[in-house]
Amino acid sequence: MISLFFKEINSFFSSVIGYVVMGVFLLAIGLLMWVFPDFSIINYKYATLDQLFDVAPMVFLFLIPAITMRSIAEERNQGTIEFLETKPLTDLQIVLAKFFASWVLVGITLIPTLIFYYSVYQLGLPKGNLDSGAIAGSYLGLFMLGGIFAAIGVFASSLTNNQIVAFLLAALLAFIFYWGFDFISRMPVFIGWIDDIVQMLGIEYHYQQISRGVIDSRNMIYFFSVMAAFIGAAQLSLEKRGW
Amino acid sequence: MSVKVEDLTKVYGQQHAVDNISFEVQSGQILGFLGPNGAGKSTTMKMITCFIPPTRGKIEVCGLDVSAEPMAVRKKIGYLPEHNPLYLDMYVKEYLHFVAGLHKLSNKNKIIADKIEMVGLSLEQNKKIGNLSKGYRQRVGLAQALIHDPDVLILDEPTSGLDPNQLVEIRNLIKTVGQEKTVILSTHIMQEVQAMCDRVIIINQGQLVADDPIEKLSARIAGESIITVGFQKEVPIKALEQLPGVQKVEPLAQAKYHIFAKSKVDVREDLFKLAVKNQWVILELMKDTLSVEDVFHKLTQKISSHD
Q1: Which residues of B touch A2 (CB under 8 A)?
Q2: Out of A15-29, A89-103, B186-200, least confident range
Q3: Cα A112 from chain centroid (whole Å)
Q4: What b/e readout covers A110-122, taking b as 16+ CB neighbours within 10 angstroms?
Q5: How many Cβ contacts (< 8 angstroms) between chains A and B?
Q6: Sign of dihedral through CA atoms B307, B42, A85, A66?
Q7: Residue A42 burial by Cβ neighbours in a 10 Å radius (0-12, 13-18, 19+)
Q8: ipTM
Q9: Do A86 and B101 touch (CB under 8 A)?
Q10: How many CA atoms lie within 13 A of A114 on its CB side?
């Protein structure tokens, strides 16, 4: 399993995908945070990283499916899935290796944004006047959100041998889980009845809570159980071998 | 008993891809799996290698049940799937390192160097797999299958698409490897079976139609001549059997016989003289030589005509 994990990581960086994903993410975030006047920190005049944490989920919505779309779909398409499945690896190990490789790549992509933290820290008046606790929480939230998106992406990729289908499906599922439940909870039928429960099914609710800097075990349980559910579903879909 | 298959059946919807197949292979034996395209060769192999589960039946590899201990079985098997799927953007050595890692081998460098030499990849070992020709890719596939020194080697059409030189080299390689392992290989080329295998199983439309040692099949193939003769009235079979060179006489229809003779001998002249002597009227006389293809054709056709 470890070999497969490292093979996946290697294949991100030996092909262009890894660099393109990181480049696009940093470029988009950088432009939105510092250049475009509607969002930029310079115009906002408060020393926070809120822009980063508001915009990053939207960028992840497209980038993480791009990372994960080939994970299993390509193995199916190339026939290498038969090679993997006949090696001493369980289906769960295959899915986990793919999932962790994607998640780690998301983590690596986030690391350079620490420069933004440093910049804002330096720019604050007085220097260092920003809520580091909340920022740490937000990073954790963003990382967990990336984990859910990665699990969704690997699951979508396991359903098909077409990467484009995998990408669109993953983006759709990620959208439903991030904003969808939130939107649905505001429908008149649910208000005053189960709107809070529907809202709690979505990622945004938990992401916002963690962003305040309070790490509640309930939120963490939510993140991990959604990941586990999609990994389990991917394993099932792999077991059926698409026959 | 290296590989034992009992009443193996695989059903896709209405279609019986593999239908009640049973056979056994001992270690040190090279078994050829022969059949036309779509006969169920690959499906059988995929079931032995734990890629797809059988609908019914039992498979044992080195005494381990495939459905009960799939992980242990996978460690015993080296498998070269049909079309030889490889990661084309990996380098040869990188790929073999990866496979060795999947098998949790220690001393990887030495093992990889050995296998690279064994399959004759030394000159190409630093290239990208995607840049290799088909013959060399096939060698990479073989190296991958051999890397953990498996007891059982399963090769699905290992020689398809190779040029004649590569063909000979790969065949020799498989023969060498097969001396101490159990090898099951599939092909739809008869000559290949003759060149490599100790034993042949012919399957057609999912059913086993022949399970013979290669000598027996070769005897069939080596070109017996078959003479079909039709007389006006029935004649005593014994008299026909006494003709020089005749091995067997089978009655075919009324007053019609198949005479099996050694290929070198032409019994038609003697047959004619015998008939004249006894005043038997010959209505038809036909000579046929069974070629490699004929045996195959005959065996695989039998089933289709039943349906």
Answers
A1: 101
A2: B186-200
A3: 16
A4: beebeebbeebbe
A5: 62
A6: negative
A7: exposed
A8: 0.84
A9: no
A10: 8
Among B13, B8, B4, CA closest to B76: B4
B83 in contact with chain A, both atoms CB, cutoff 8 A = yes
- Average pLDDT estimate for B143-170: 87
CA nearest A66: which of A27, A113, A106, A30? Answer: A106
pTM over 0.90: no
Chain centre distance of CA A207: 12
**Residue range B224-289, CATH number:** 3.30.70.100
Question: What is the CATH architecture assignment of B3-220?
Answer: 3-Layer(aba) Sandwich (3.40)
Task: Give the pairing of strands B182-187 and B30-34.
Answer: parallel
B250 by Cβ neighbours in 10 Å (0-12 / 13-18 / 19+) ranks as exposed
d(CA B137, CA B166): 11
**Pair of tokens at residue A100:** 């962790």
Question: Which residues does chain A have within 8 Å of residue B83's beta carbon, measured at their own beta carbons?
Answer: 79
Are B268 and B295 in contact by the 8 Å Cβ rule? The answer is no
A86–B85 C-beta distance less than 8 A: no
Query: What is the tens place of the pLDDT at every residue in A38-63?
Result: 777 777 777 778 878 888 898 899 99
Question: Cα angle at B144 between B143 and B147, to 5 degrees?
Answer: 80
A78 contact residues in B (CB cutoff 8 A): 85, 87-88
Contact B8, B22 (CB under 8 A): yes
pLDDT 10s digits, B115-128:
999 888 888 889 99
DSSP A192-220: TTTHHHHHHHSHHHHHHHHHTT---HHHH
Edge-to-edge strands, sheet with B282-289: B246-253, B256-261, B225-231, B282-289
Which tokens is B11 given?
Answer: 């059903």
* Cross-chain Cβ contact A86/B71 below 8 Å: no
Report d(CA B209, CA B20) in Å as an integer: 11
Beta-sheet strands, E only, within chain B: 3-12, 15-25, 30-34, 56-61, 64-65, 77-80, 152-156, 182-187, 199-204, 207-213, 225-231, 246-253, 256-261, 282-289
AA identity, residue A143? F
Boundaries of every domain in chain B: 3-220, 224-289
Task: Say yes or no to pLDDT of B223 above 80.
Answer: no
Contact A152, A72 (CB under 8 A): no
CB B119 within 8 A of CB B146: yes
Nearest to A120 by CA among A40, A236, A207, A210: A40
